Amino acid sequence: MIIRTILRLFAIGSLSTVGHTAPNGQSPEHMAMLSYASLDHIQWGEPNRGMTLGIEDIETSVTFPLSPVITIHLANQTDETISNLMRQRASFIVEIDGVMYGESSMGGAIGQLRPRETWGPYYLSTQYFKRIAPAKRGVHDPDAPALTLTSGHHILRVHFGHMNSVVSPPIAIEITMVPYPEAEAAIEFSQALRSSNQDRRRDAALRTGELRVRGAIPALIDTLADRDPTTRRYAATSLGQIGDRAASETALRQSLNDPSMEVVFAAAEALVSCGVPLDTAWIEPVIRSEESIFQNAIWLIRRHAGEAAVPALIRCLDPNDPKVSSYYNYTLVWQIGACGGPSYRFNHDFDGKGTPEQVEENRQTLSRLIALLSES
């Protein structure tokens, strides 16, 4: 059996992990709960109206150690286009040892499979799947038991369709979920983090922290200097998820000088996750940048700066922008009041349709708040 899931290196859910702080450290129980089933090749089911479903990998993560991510492929084996296919989790039903699970979700991309075309890999994350009755495929009870897949031998079937309309017969495979091999993972992830392929490095930087692969910390530290800012951000986040302060603190502090504000934020958040007390000086430049990440930075200060939070947020105010269109100042004024500081109104309108009196009121609000710094 080969460790295909390590070699696949895929990201669970959204690639944006900004604002998320995972639990610190890694206990032996973390790795003991992780499991995977490795397949030598994509296993395809029988076609139905030209649609064929295939399964490649099955793997759990530290965040959801009992809810597998199933790597899915869809293929059109005909010479005609298959239209109106909904790519969302609600399109899939997972059956484990005869018990069916599904999810009710909205949205998802509607697409089509051209003749002889294959979709994939599609990473089917099952953490929100609930038990459903076979006769009521489209009915999802939020209080029903969740899908779980423990180590051991199982018969797994995956159905593809949309609510009550199943367009493909299930692909059924017998799998044996085995404990995730930490030592091999450290080798494989370290190699992937040093790969010449950018996508491989990026995925590995994200996934290493999700699996708490301590043996890959040196490679993650090297990745903090990657040319791709997203990869650097993932590496910083992963170091925080692993939570080894002694091994990571120096490198993460150096990343506080990164030109990317998202990397700076990730490094600051990772330091906090490793047990380093937050210094608001790390994060105030992220707020002042007014980049999209600035609100996450505000929340980091609110959660971890204690009594230093209000002065830090006041220092970030822009006294030269009292306009009602200033969402930045509006947000800061509101957050200052929400975390125990003085509560003032900052008039705001996205279209900038404010009166001169409202602008003057905003100017006075900014002046009053900034004056508090000299009084303290």
TrEMBL record:
Chain segments annotated as coiled-coil in the UniProt record: none
Domain of life: Bacteria
One Pfam family in the UniProt entry: HEAT_2
Transmembrane segments: none
SMART domains hit by this protein: EZ_HEAT
Alphabetized InterPro entries for the sequence: ARM-like, ARM-type_fold, HEAT_type_2, PBS_lyase_HEAT
SUPFAM superfamilies named among the record's database cross-references: ARM repeat
Protein name: HEAT repeat domain-containing protein
Lineage, top ranks: Bacteria, Pseudomonadati, Verrucomicrobiota, Opitutia, Opitutales
